[in-house]
Amino acid sequence: MTRAELTEKIVAHKTFNDIKWKDVATAVGQSKEWVTAALMGQISLTKEQAIAAGNAMGLNFSDEELALLMTVPYRGSIATAVPTDPLIYRLYEVVAVYGTTMKALIEEEFGDGIMSAIDFTMDIQREENPAGDRVKIEMTGKFLPYKTF
């Protein structure tokens, strides 16, 4: 079994059994964003976390599957340079349109550097609005200044 095949198995089982990522996250003891990324193949789990996720989903992972969940992944979940999935494309579009603005404002506030995607948290929430519910995405990453040498 490959890691991609395991991801497909997890997603199919989740969908068929109407399991919510937030419920799995509660069982694992981490955020829904982190656990979802891990089960989608972008973050490695400890053996205990993988077993807790499997138990929460009603999946009895084999030793091979546990090992795949524990293996540090090759990161990057988008198969094409420009995403074709409409939701992912809209996030790409936000960066395409506002990326230089975000960069300018971050550099003005912090200086020359980057926002870490390793020392990072993300929170996705539904925000009710009379004009139509909103998607609220909050990303927090440690600022890493470029060093001179």
UniProtKB/TrEMBL annotation:
InterPro entries (UniProt xref): Cyanase, Cyanate_lyase_C, Cyanate_lyase_C_sf, CYNS_N, Lambda_DNA-bd_dom_sf
Active site: 90, 93, 116
Residues annotated as domain Cyanate lyase C-terminal: 77-149
Key words of the record: Lyase
Range of residues in the leader sequence: none
CDD domains: Cyanase_C
EC number: 4.2.1.104
Gene3D superfamilies: Cyanate lyase, C-terminal domain, lambda repressor-like DNA-binding domains
Catalytic activity from the UniProt record: cyanate + hydrogencarbonate + 3 H(+) = NH4(+) + 2 CO2
Top-level EC class: lyase
Sample GO molecular function, one term: DNA binding
Summary of the function given for this chain in its UniProt record: Catalyzes the reaction of cyanate with bicarbonate to produce ammonia and carbon dioxide.
PANTHER family: CYANATE HYDRATASE (PTHR34186:SF2)
Family: Belongs to the cyanase family.
Name of this chain's protein: Cyanate hydratase
Organism annotation: Aliishimia ponticola
